[in-house]
Amino acid sequence: MTKCLADSKKNVREAAIKALEEWATQVPLEKMVSVLSAASQPTAKNGSVIPSEGRAAALDIAAKCVTSLSATPSQDVLSILGSTAATSISDKTPEVRGASERLVKALCESGGDRFKRTIDNKTRTALSAALDKYSI
Predict the structure, then answer these.
(1) What is the mean pLDDT of each run of 10 residues along the chain (136 residues)?
(2) How far is CA 40 from CA 111, 112, 127, in A?
(3) Are 11 and 19 in contact (CB under 8 A)?
(4) In Å, what is the CA distance from 74 to each residue of 3, 6, 12, 44, 79?
(5) Which residue of 7, 50, 94, 124 lies most exposed, with the fewest beta carbons within 10 A?
(6) Are 2 and 39 in contact (CB under 8 A)?
(7) DSSP E strand boundaries for 13-111
(8) Nearest-angstrom CA–CA distance, 32 and 58
(9) Dihedral through CA 14, CA 29, CA 120, CA 104, nearest 10?
């Protein structure tokens, strides 16, 4: 999936985003979290660069998945997505930073105190402004 998000053709990247969105409606978040985390990184495993619109879309999809959960996300999901948001919140592009903040908001709203207890100090420091904004 990350290979398609990093493709040089815009229509391939757009199709990959649509596929991720559709996949998110059909698959539990626990099974998608690693793909969404990888898709929000600046480079794919093969070394190609994932454009900012693909990274922002992956973060937004993760936020939508978290918000749509009827129960609190598992500790693993909170930890992985918290770390993902922490690395993306300082991205140079505003759309990725905004999407990362939306993910933090979703994690705060659905995970609450459990999210705060789950993330490590390094992640908490990176997300401090967003955590303060959402009262955690």
Answers:
(1) 88 93 91 92 88 94 90 87 90 94 90 79 79 70
(2) 20, 23, 16
(3) no
(4) 28, 29, 32, 26, 9
(5) 94
(6) yes
(7) none
(8) 10
(9) 60
Residue 85, CA distances (Å) to 11, 46, 49, 67, 94 in order? 26, 22, 18, 15, 14
Rounded CA-CA distance 120/115 in Å is 10
pLDDT at 23 (0 to 100): 92
Return the amino acid letter for 77: V
- Length, in residues, of the chain: 136
The identity of residue 96, as a single letter, is: V
- Angle in degrees, CA 42, 106, 32, rounded to 5: 55
* Six-digit token string for 89: 């919140």
- In the numeric block, the tokens 């898709």 are attached to 39
SS3 70: coil
